[in-house]
C-alpha cells in the first residue's frame, strides 16, 4: 500500500498513532480528530495520495471552507518535497483555482463556506473525497457529499479539531460509530502523538492557547464554548501606555467595523521594530490607535460621505508618540465585508479599501492566541494623550462572551453586543496574516 510513497521523507517519522491510522483507514468514511499539530493531517494526506491512485468511477474532490484554506492546509503540504519527496512535484495547484492535478488525476477543489455551497456538488458522482476541517463545513454540504459517494469502494478522508460536544458531526456521526453507524472509523490524536515536535515547540503551543482553545486544540477535548471569549485578558498585561509604544516597522492596516445605528470603529494594527539584547528581531503586533463614531452617544447620525471625511482626516493624523521618531500611515484599509455602500464612498473619495476576511472563529482564535502569547498589545490612553490609544477595544474585551443559546445548538458564536472595536481589530489581524506571520515568532497552527 505504501509503494506509491516510496522515498517520501514523511514515512520515516510516523509515530505509533499515525501508523495505526494509516493501516486502519479502510472504511467508507475515515475521520481523524484531535489536537492541532498532532500529525493527523499529514497521515491523512498520505492515505489520500494512495487512494488517488486507485479511485475509480467518479470525481476526486478536495473540500475546505475556502479554496485558500484548501491551498494552505492540503496542497501546500502535498507540494512540499521536504514531506513528500519527489511526489511533491506530481501535485500542482494555484490558490483559488477550481481544479488541481495530483499524480496525473484531475481533482476538483471546492469551497464550502456556507449552506448554499452544497449546490456545487449537484451533478457530481464522487469516488474519493478529502475534507479539511470537517467541523467548519456546513452540515448540508457534508450530507450532500456523502450522498454523492455512490461508486463501489468510494471513500472519504476527513480531519478536524474538536468542537462543541453538540456539534452535528459528533452527535450525528462520531458518537454512533461502533453502534448503529456502519462504514465509519475515527482516530483520536493528541499533541504528543506527533514524534516530530520538540518539547520546546510543544511548550510554545501550550502557552499560546488558553481556556476553550487549550482544551480543544491542545488536550483534544470536545467541550462547549461558554463564558468569556478572551478569558486570558488582563489590562495590566495586555495594554501599554500610548506614550510608551516602541518604534514601529510599519502600520500594516486599519480594520474598520462599519455601523449606522451602531458605532463605527477603526483600529490600526502595527508591527514593531523591536530587537532583543543580541540585536535579533523581536517584533510584536500592536493596536496603536482607534477611531470611533457612535451616533447614539454623539446624537448625530453621519452620512457615508461625512463618515468618510472624518475617517480620512483621522488617518492623516500622527498615530505614534513623538518618542518613536516616526510618522506612519496604515498601508491598507480593511473594511467590514457588509459595508458595501461605505466601500463605494471611500473609493469615490480616493481610498481603496479591501474586504475583510470575516472568518469569525478563526479570527477570534488568532487574536486570543496572540494575546496569550504576548505577541499582541493594545495601546491605552494616557493623561498626556487622552485621545490616543484604543479605549473602545479595552472596554469591550472583558465582556466579550459566547452566546449560550448558540452553544446549546452546537454552534460557537459570540454575543453580538459591544464588539465593534473588537471586530475592527480582528479584521486587521486576520486579513493581513500573510504579512505579519513571517515576521514574528508565533507558532499558531491548524
UniProtKB/TrEMBL annotation:
<protein>
    <submittedName>
        <fullName>Phage terminase large subunit</fullName>
    </submittedName>
</protein>
<dbReference type="Pfam" id="PF03237">
    <property type="entry name" value="Terminase_6N"/>
</dbReference>
<dbReference type="InterPro" id="IPR027417">
    <property type="entry name" value="P-loop_NTPase"/>
</dbReference>
Amino acid at each position: 500500500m505504501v509503494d506509491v510513497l516510496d522515498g517520501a521523507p514523511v514515512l520515516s517519522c510516523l509515530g505509533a498513532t499515525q501508523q495505526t491510522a494509516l493501516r486502519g483507514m479502510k472504511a467508507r468514511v475515515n475521520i481523524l480528530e484531535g489536537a492541532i499539530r498532532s500529525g493527523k493531517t499529514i497521515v491523512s494526506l498520505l492515505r489520500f495520495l494512495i487512494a488517488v491512485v486507485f479511485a475509480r468511477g467518479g470525481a476526486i474532490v478536495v473540500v475546505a471552507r475556502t479554496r485558500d484554506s484548501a491551498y494552505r492546509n492540503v496542497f501546500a503540504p502535498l507540494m512540499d518535497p521536504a514531506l513528500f519527496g519527489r511526489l511533491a512535484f506530481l501535485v500542482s495547484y494555484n490558490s483559488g483555482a477550481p481544479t488541481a492535478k495530483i499524480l496525473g488525476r484531475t481533482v476538483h477543489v471546492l469551497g464550502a463556506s456556507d449552506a448554499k455551497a452544497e449546490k456545487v456538488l449537484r451533478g457530481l458522482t464522487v469516488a474519493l473525497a478529502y475534507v479539511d476541517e470537517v467541523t467548519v463545513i456546513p452540515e448540508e454540504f457534508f450530507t450532500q457529499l456523502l450522498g454523492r459517494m455512490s461508486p463501489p469502494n468510494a471513500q472519504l478522508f476527513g480531519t478536524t479539531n474538536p468542537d462543541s460536544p453538540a456539534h452535528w458531526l459528533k452527535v450525528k456521526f462520531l458518537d454512533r460509530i461502533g453502534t448503529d453507524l456502519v462504514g465509519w472509523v475515527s482516530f483520536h490524536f493528541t499533541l504528543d502523538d506527533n514524534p516530530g515536535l520538540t518539547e520546546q515547540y510543544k511548550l510554545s503551543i501550550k502557552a499560546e492557547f488558553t481556556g476553550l482553545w487549550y482544551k480543544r486544540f491542545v488536550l483534544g477535548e470536545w467541550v462547549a464554548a461558554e463564558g468569556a471569549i478572551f478569558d486570558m485578558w488582563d489590562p495590566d498585561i495586555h495594554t501599554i501606555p500610548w506614550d510608551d509604544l516602541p518604534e514601529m516597522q510599519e502600520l500594516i492596516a486599519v480594520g474598520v467595523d462599519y455601523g449606522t445605528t451602531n458605532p463605527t470603529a477603526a483600529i490600526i494594527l502595527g508591527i514593531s521594530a523591536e530587537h532583543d539584547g543580541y540585536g535579533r528581531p523581536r517584533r510584536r503586533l500592536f493596536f496603536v490607535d482607534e477611531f470611533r463614531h457612535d451616533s447614539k452617544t454623539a446624537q448625530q447620525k453621519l452620512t457615508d460621505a461625512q463618515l468618510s471625511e472624518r475617517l480620512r482626516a483621522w488617518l492623516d493624523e500622527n498615530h505614534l508618540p513623538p518618542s518613536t521618531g516616526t510618522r506612519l500611515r496604515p498601508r491598507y484599509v480593511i473594511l467590514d465585508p457588509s459595508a458595501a455602500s461605505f466601500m463605494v464612498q471611500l473609493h469615490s473619495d480616493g481610498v481603496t479599501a479591501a474586504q475583510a476576511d470575516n472568518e469569525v472563529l478563526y479570527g477570534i482564535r488568532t487574536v486570543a492566541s496572540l494575546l496569550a502569547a504576548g505577541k499582541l498589545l493594545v495601546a491605552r490612553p494616557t493623561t498626556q494623550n487622552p485621545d490616543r490609544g484604543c479605549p473602545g477595544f479595552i472596554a469591550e474585551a472583558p465582556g466579550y462572551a459566547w452566546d449560550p443559546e448558540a452553544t446549546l445548538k452546537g454552534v460557537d458564536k459570540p454575543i453580538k453586543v459591544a464588539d465593534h472595536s473588537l471586530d475592527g481589530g480582528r479584521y486587521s489581524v486576520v486579513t493581513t496574516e500573510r504579512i505579519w506571520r513571517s515576521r514574528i515568532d508565533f507558532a499558531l497552527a491548524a
